[in-house]
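Q: I'm building a small set of examples for a reading group on sequence design. Run inverse folding on the following structure and report the sequence directly after it, with nothing in between.
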């Protein structure tokens, strides 16, 4: 299967999520949800399905009261990246 331009975008999004996942300030429960989102994006399924699942997960994460405001901003940035894919 040939990689499309949107697959490159997914790679960048996964990289941004991995950066967040390794941030010491991110609570463990949020890291678990981020890992789940990465797993969704790495699935061998239709791009639109992966994006919708990931957006749903990230929406839940952004509503978590335990995350720092700058972490929430990073999540919103990742959401914007996903919406462009």
């Amino acid at each position: 299967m040939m990689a499309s331009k949107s697959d490159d975008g997914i790679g960048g999004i996964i990289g941004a999520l991995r950066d967040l996942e390794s941030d010491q300030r991110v609570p463990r429960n949020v890291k678990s949800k981020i890992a789940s989102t990465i797993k969704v994006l790495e699935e061998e399924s239709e791009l639109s399905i992966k994006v919708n699942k990931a957006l749903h997960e990230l929406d839940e994460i952004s509503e978590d009261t335990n995350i720092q405001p700058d972490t929430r901003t990073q999540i919103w940035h990742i959401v914007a990246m996903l919406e462009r894919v």
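The first helix runs from residue 5 to 21.
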